[in-house]
Amino acid sequence: MMRASGGEKVSRFPIMTVSKRVTIGIPTIDRSKLAMRAVQSALAQTYRDIEAIVSDDASTDDTLARVREIQDSRLVVFEQKQRLGLVGNFDFCLRHASGEFFLLLGDDDVLLPTAIERLIGPFTNQTGLVPPDSIGAVWCPCRIADADSTQFWNTEAGPDCESAASMLAALFAGNRGPRLSSILLRTQDAIAVGGYQTKYGDLCDIGNWGRAALLRDAVVCIREPLVQYTNHYGSTTSQSAVEKWQQWARVVHADLLVSARASGDRKVEQLLKSAKKNFISGITLTILIQTIGKPGWIRNALLQSLRTPSAMFTPYMFRRLLKDGRKVLTLWNSSKWPHRTEG
Fold first, then answer.
1. Which of 203, 273, 205 is nearest to 240 (CA)?
2. 75-79 and 50-56 beta bridge pairing
3. Which of 125, 122, 194, 205 is nearest to 168 (CA)?
4. Which residue of 39, 174, 233, 244 has the fewest CB atoms within a 10 Å radius of its CB?
5. DSSP class of 228
6. Torsion of Cα atoms, 131 then 22 then 139 then 180, to 10°
7. What's the predicted TM-score (pTM) here?
8. How far apart are CA 191 and CA 20, in angstroms?
9. Contact 129/122 with Cβ under 8 angstroms?
10. Cα of 200 vs its chain's centroid, Å
């Protein structure tokens, strides 16, 4: 294990990368138990050429001490003396990656053992779907679970191969299920679009990977859940105001359009432009679902209907509620959900 301090200035220029190595970035703060689980899942990958970067954002618990107990030469631990915040910590991990490929792993999520091996395959031409140089991202659906690994459902897969714009439009329509921890990118592509940026707020992940994917022709889906994504009451998503997420979504969408316009393909631009309303409605529904079990969540949902009827009363919203209503009931009926407070 390597140790480092995060006090130095973060380089804004591309760094030398190691070919075919995958860097798994794990930004964390005050999540000792869950962070250990995430780190161990990264180091247990069947694909051995990995680097696991843990950036501890000035935790006040024993996260840093516990991670430093792990003896593995592939583990690099950074201690931030002053807090970078969610976006800054994400970006720190990316800027310090030495691998040619990068996956950002939430500190409360879990990689299944073959996740990296399966996700790297299309980039190394093991699948033969499309030329590796044309692939902007490889992703997989996820198992949705609570922090105790009680599984709720699996998110939706997509076709084996499609354009980035098609995948994003389908995601906004509720028909694709990538999550933060299930997307593998080229490190240099993720840096080329500006890394993780504060203007996107907590949607900085899609602001990064969406624009990085649009740099190339294709997105590949491994149609098997290889990541366990954690929904829990103490998550950032469950504690945020809907209005903030809606504004972040508008900024992300505007920049995705800029990226699409740069491709010179008017159909790509038009596809993303027409998906905006779905994106805003989807973000609204996602945040409301994440708050299920929180005191006053029903009242909050009703108030949101009055505040932003254009996002709530849409054909998309009704389709999603019909399609995913069972998920709402699953969370509502889960006896653990209202009491989940551990970060």
1. 203
2. parallel
3. 205
4. 244
5. E
6. -150
7. 0.85
8. 17
9. yes
10. 13
Read off the pLDDT of residues 53-96 as tens digits, 9 standing for 90 and up: 999 999 999 999 999 999 999 999 999 999 999 999 999 999 99
Spatial CA neighbour of 310 closest among 342, 284, 287, 339 = 284
Please report, for residues 174, 187, 315, 327, 329, the alpha-carbon distance to residue 322 in angstroms, rounded to integers and kept in the order given: 12, 38, 11, 10, 12
* Alpha helices (runs of H) in the chain, residue ranges in sequence order: 32-43, 63-68, 85-95, 115-120, 164-172, 187-192, 204-213, 242-262, 266-274, 276-290, 297-307, 309-312, 315-333
What is the longest distance spanned by two Cα atoms in the chain?
A: 54
Q: Is 308 left (phi over 0), alpha (psi -120 to 50) or beta?
A: beta
Work out whether strand 227-230 and strand 110-111 pair parallel, antiparallel, or are unpaired: antiparallel
DSSP string covering 263-302, please? TT-HHHHHHHHHTHHHHHHHHHHHHHHHTTTSTTHHHHHH
- What pLDDT, on a 0 to 100 scale, did the predictor assign at position 336? 43
> Contact 22/124 with Cβ under 8 angstroms?
no
Are 172 and 156 in contact by the 8 Å Cβ rule? The answer is no
| Length of the chain, in residues | 343
Q: Which amino acid makes up residue 173?
A: A
Q: What is the mean pLDDT of residues 34-57?
A: 98
Contact 245, 163 (CB under 8 A): no
pLDDT of 341 reads 34
Rounded CA-CA distance 156/113 in Å is: 20
| Run of H or E residues at 78 | strand 75-79
Closest to 54 measured CA to CA, from 11, 101, 65, 19: 65
- 151: Cα within 13 Å, side-chain hemisphere: 9
Tokens matching residue 247: 């504004």
Euclidean distance between CA atoms 310 and 211, whole angstroms: 26
